[in-house]
Amino acid sequence: MKGYAESIRFLGQWGRFQRVIFFLLCITIIPNGFGAFTLVFLADTPEHRCRIPEVNLTDEWRGAIIPELVGEGTPKRSSCSRYRLDVVRNLSAQGLGPGDVNLTSLEQERCKDGFFYSTDIYTSTIVSEFDLVCENKWKQPLTNTVFFLGILVGSFFSGQLSDRFGRKPVLFATVALQTISTFLKIFSVSWAMFTVVLFINGLGQMSNYVSALVLGSEILTGNVRILYSSLGTCFGFALGYILLPLVAYFMRSWKSLLIALTIPGLFLFPLWWFIPESPRYLLSQGKVEEAEAIMRKAARWNNVSAPGVIFTDYTVSQTKEAQLQEQFRAVDLFRHRAFRLTSSLLFLVAFTLIATYFGLCFNTANLHADPYISCLISAVVEIPAYIMAWLGLFYLPRQLSVIGSLVLGALPLFFIQLVPEEWPAVAITLEMVGKLFITAGTSLLFSYSAELYPTSLRNTATGVCNSVARLGSCITPFLFELRHVDKFLPYIILGTLSMVSAAATLFLPETYGRPLPDTVEQMARRKSINFPCRRTKTHRSHAPPNWTTAA
Q: Is the dihedral of CA 399, 400, 406, 407 positive or negative?
């Protein structure tokens, strides 16, 4: 029996059908670039100080009631305390000025009357809206973590739902969830309400990215599939990321920014009538007629003739595969012998890459005094990173590409601590070089994980892998708080994790130059090639040009 790629060879690889699917799926990913890093601006902390109520104070005392902090660098005013207002009022009433008393001996108090926030950069953020500063400062990194927890849960369940109900329904359901929840955040009246809606927003944030990635990877074939999974999807994400600081520059209020981010999602719903279901998925469910109908429509779009029977003998064998699929769930990634080691190692690598990637992305707010420039620098770096990943997928083995990304991404993070403080540009360059290679590795990871598993488990495995990876992103908001202990400690931790994961990648199966596996048997054959100590006499023969389905 012919494999899927062989069965649809009559279509070609880059006809009108493939071009439409390629670009439309890339468009569905653009809002992910917006949404993933929106909190860089929504949850940024403006300059702030205690609000002084309208009481009888001289202008001299109003300028001095905020204590001056003496420490490293330029002295600055306290953000979270003031001299006791009743004491200052008495001194002012007695005609004494700040120069007539010893200010350091005055008792201080917290900001009982709220805060005054600078509007030099932002009109408002959720930090200024809900006073997430001083004693409530812990809520700011927790906000990021709640968002990533939503992504984690969404990635886990969306993969299983996609394997159960189809790639296309889950793709558009998560697009709708992401668009609606982004708009609903505008009506938040408290931090608690905002975080609940933010969690729901996270459920759809990366889930539709994974669904679009798997859908395109299963419809497209050959070099076009590699181009899509390595460059197309990533460029769609990068375009949204680059547009974010440009839009945020003109939308300085957090509510106006959310309105702007809602609009692109509305234009995605009409694409339902142009993007088909995955024929591979339909075949795995035994729905051969529906798969053939899609391919015949594709043939008309490409102006080619389709054979009388496209998927020869798929009815019986694929129905059997569909029955086997019912036995596969997320737990089988560790319970089933064919998946256990691959899943464990892949999840470690995914955790490290995502933790490092998001850690460096969100830390870019500290690179430059202007957060819009910082975010734009970080976004632009993604373009060469994705080109590197694309070239790596075309010309290098997957293991070598991932290992190289991890090692070359880790080394600059170790070197940052050697840079003198008077050379900040060098430190920024090293951090961006590290981000360049880690971003390339992250791009490779999505393609690599989709190539490792059979069709009946591919989306579930990709979703669970993405969920485990999101555990890494959940810790990054607090990981970079360790810079208050040692400013280089976050870099050392992430660099060490990257080196350990590079070593683990040596034991993953190689997928370069091989078709996507449709069955567990095909995955096991691929694995045996990479682990010669487990080969048997049967496995020594070379795999045929096209995988055969298990009998």
A: positive
